[in-house]
Amino acid sequence: MNEKSQAEAERRARLLKSRAERLPDIKKQFEENQKRNFNANFAPGGKDERLVQSKKSIKTAKKTTKTAVKSAKTVKTAAKTKKAKSESTEKRRDVNLLVSTRKGEMVHHQRMLSQDVNAQATQHIIGIPVNKSRYNGYHGNQVTMSQLRAARPHKDAVRIIPIGGLGENGIGKNMTAIEYQGEIVLVDMGTLFADNDYPGVNYMIPASKYLEDNREKVKAILFTHAHLDHIGACKHLLPFFGPLVPIYATPFTIGMIKRQMSELSDVPEMNYQIVNPLDHKKIQLTQHLSCEFIHMLHSIPGNTSILFRTPNGNIVLSGDWRFETNPMDTPADYDYLVNIANTEGITVLLNESTNIDTPGTHPHSEFDVGENMGRVMDHYASGRVIISCFSSQVKRIELVLHEAAKRGRKVAFAGYSMINNVEVALRARAIKVPKDVIMKMEDIVKLPDEKVTIVCTGSQGELNAVLNRMVSGAHRYIKIKASDTIVFSSNPIPGNEPKVTTTVGGLLREGAQVIQNGKTHITNIGPLHLSGHAYYEDHVKYVTDLHPKNYVPYHGEFYMLQHNAEMAENVVGIPRDNILVADDGDIIELMPDQTIHKNGRISVGNKLYDDADRQVNEAVVKDRIHISREGIFVVILTLSKKTGRLIKTPDIVSRAFIYLDNSEELIGKIRHYLRAKTDRNIANESDIKALKEEIKEDVTHILFDATGHTPIVIPVINKV
Questions:
Q1: HSE-CB of 632 using CA atoms within 13 angstroms
Q2: pLDDT tens digits along 341-370
Q3: Which residues in 402-450 belong to E strands, given as ranges?
Q4: 183-187 and 175-180: which strand pairing?
Q5: Which of 20, 311, 471, 480 has the CA that lies 20 to 30 A from 90?
Q6: Are residues 338 and 270 in the same domain?
Q7: Does 598 lie in the same domain as 650?
Q8: What does 453-509 look like in DSSP terms, one character per residue?
C-alpha cells in the first residue's frame, strides 16, 4: 500500500468513527424536533433543515481537503448529487405545511368531543353518575370511592342488590339479587331496548362481575312476569347458571321463557318450577330464605308480586302492577297482601315507579278497550281494520278476537313475536279463542275487506316491524290502501314519538284512516289502550295499605324513583331515614334490628347486542358515535421491503368527513407531508409503529386546522 492509499484509508476510518460517535446525538435531536411540531420540522428554515445544513457544511469542509484526484472527483460527484437532491427537497417544501391552530386547541376539541360522545352514550357506558339526593342513603352526601372500597358486609345482614332497572336512561333491564349467609336468590333478567344514542345496538342486558364471581352461590331464580324488560335476558344468562338451579314462575311466564330458550342450540332442559300464586304456597329457596308468589294485575297474564321471608323481616318486591275495577283476568290477590302487612308486617317494600307522575287512578278497564275496538269495526265496516299493539297484550288480543267474531270478521296475526306469544298463551290456557275466527295471512287476503281484521306489531314505529313494511309495500301479503283503518292500541314509549309520527304520516299518505289512543277528541272513539302500571293515587293507596317500615322505589328512571320517594315521605308519612333511592349496584343491607342502610357497591354494567343477537363491544359503540359526528380518514402508505422507503403516492380514503374531489389543496398538503415523513429508511416494526403514531397526531392536527373537526385517523402501512 503506497503512502497516499494509506492516508486515504486513515482519513476514511476517522470519518466513520466520527460519524458513529455523533449519530446517536443527531438521531435524538431529530426525534425531539419531530415530537414538538412537524410544522417547524418541514418549514423552510426550520430546525430540521438547519440541522441538515449544518451536517452538510461539516461534510463539505472535510471533503474539500486536498487528496488524490480520484477522491476529489468522488467528492465533486457526491456534491452534485446532494445538491440536486437538496433542490428537489426545497421544491417539495414549497407547499405550506404551517397550521394556524395550536396543538392545545386540537386537544381541547378532542376532549370536548369525547365528553359529548360519553354523554350521548349515557351512563350505560360511562358509569352511573353520583347520587346526591336526600334519599341516597348517605344523608345526601357524596360518597367517596375510598369509602365504598372500605365497606365490609355485615355478617347478619340481608343484602338487597339491584343489578339492573334502577335509575337507567330508559325503563327495563330489571334484575335484583337477595343474599343472606352466602346464598343468593335472583329476581328477573330483563332487557333494555337501545335508543338512537347507540348506533347498531338493539338491546342491552345486565352484566355484573358480582354474579360471575358468585355463580355457585345462586340457589334460585324467580320471575315476576313475562315482559321482555323482565325476562328478555334469560337466553343469555340462564345457561350461565346451569340446569340445576330451579326457575320459579307462573305457567304463562314459563312458556315465554321456554320460547326464548328455544332460540338457543345445545342447551339442556332447565329446572322449571311452575307456580300457582293463588295456592299461597310457601317455597323454601335456601336454608334461610323462603318466598311466596302473590297474584297481581298487569297488562299480561301470570303477573305476580313476590314476598320474601328472611331472618331480618319480610321483603315485598312489587313487580309491575295496576288496580282495575273490572278485570278480564282473575282479580288481584290484593287483600291477601294487605292481610300479611297487618299480621306479619312488611319490613322492606320495593315498589315500582313507572307511572308515579301520572295523576289520579285508572278510570277504565280492558273491557272498555275491547268495546271501543268493536266500535271501530262498526264505524269502518266497509274496509279492513288493522290493529297494532304490543305483542304481549294477549288479553287485549283475546278481546279483539271476540269483537271480530261478533261481526263476522276473521282475524290474522302479523309479526313473529305476535304469533309466538299467542301460541304460548293458548298452550298456557291464558286466553280463550272463539271457534273458526283465526286464519293464516295467506288465506285471509282472499276474503272481502269488510271481513278482515289484522292484529300486528309496529305500534312503536319500529322500522322493520310489520306495520312499517305494510306502509312501504315490503310486506308479502298486505299493502295499505285508502279503505283501511289502522288502530294504534298503545301509547308511544318515551323516545319513540318521532318514529310513531313518521309511521302515522306514511299511513295517512296512503289514504288510510288512522285512529290513535288519546285522540278521542278527533275520532270520538277511545280509550284504545290501558297502561299496565299504577297511577299516582293508586300508589298512595298501595303504600298506605301496606305501611312498610322501610321503602325502596325501584323499576324506573331516576326522576321516577325520586318522585316515588317524595310521595312515600310527604303523603304516606314514611320517615325520610327509612327511604332509600338506590342505583344499580348499590348494596342495601337489612339489619337484624330491621333498619336499612347502604353499604358499598358492586360492579355492574351492560352487555350490548345487535339485531342478530351478537354482542357489541362498548368501545365499538363509542367509535360509531365518533364517526357519525366527525367521520373517518385513512392514509395508506406503500413501502419497499428492501429499502424501507415510499414507492408510490400515498392513498387517502375519507368517509363521512370530506369529499376528496372538493379538497384537492388539503389532500395535496397531506400527501407532501407523508412524503417528507417517509423520506428515510423504515427498517423494523418498532419504526413502523412509531411512524403510525406520529402520522395519526400530525394528520389530525392538519385536518383540524383546515376543517375544525378531528375524524378518526387510521394510518395503514404496507410493505411490498
A1: 11
A2: 999 999 999 999 999 999 999 888 899 999
A3: 410-414
A4: antiparallel
A5: 20
A6: yes
A7: no
A8: EEEES-TT--TTSHHHHHHHT-SSS----TT-EEEE-S-PPTT-HHHHHHHHHHHHH
Provide the residue range defining the domain that includes 466: 366-523
Q: Let me know if residue 625 belongs to a domain.
A: no
Whether 352 and 223 share a structural domain: yes
List the one residue out of 502, 506, 397 whose CA is nearest residue 453: 397
* Secondary structure, 3-state, 350-408: EEECCCCCCCCCCCCCHHHHHHHHHHHHHHCCCCCEEEECCCCCHHHHHHHHHHHHHCC
pLDDT tens profile 622-633: 889 889 889 999
Cβ neighbours for 52, distance < 8 A, ≥ 6 positions apart? none
Sequence-distant (≥ 6) Cβ neighbours of residue 662 within 8 angstroms: none
Asked whether residue 145 is assigned to any structural domain, the reply reads: no
Closest to 449 (Cα-Cα) out of 426, 481, 475: 481
Among 460, 488, 523, the domain boundary falls at 523
Task: Band the pLDDT of 109: cuts 50, 70, 90.
Answer: confident
Question: Beta-carbon neighbour count of residue 437 at 10 Å?
Answer: 17
Are residue 84 and residue 217 in the same domain, yes or no? Answer: no
Domain co-membership, 227 together with 348: yes
* Residue 640 covered by a domain: yes
The residues near 167 (Cβ < 8 Å, ≥ 6 apart) are 123, 128, 131, 557, 558, 561, 581, 582, 583, 584
Cell numbers 299493502 correspond to 479
Domain count, the chain: 4
588 and 519, same structural domain? no
Of the residues 618, 641, 664, which one is the last residue of a structural domain?
Answer: 618
Verify that 121 and 220 share a domain, yes or no.
no
Cell of 422: 299467542
> The cell 403516492 sits on which residue?
649
Element (H, E) at 295: strand 290-295
Residue 315 lies in a domain: yes
Task: Fill in the amino acid letter for 43.
Answer: A
Nearest-angstrom CA–CA distance, 504 and 497:
11
In this structure, are 648 and 576 located in the same domain?
no
Q: Say which residues have a Cβ less than 8 Å from residue 311's Cβ, sequence separation at least 6.
A: 156, 158, 180, 288, 592
* Rounded distance between C-alpha atoms, residue 559 and residue 567, angstroms: 12
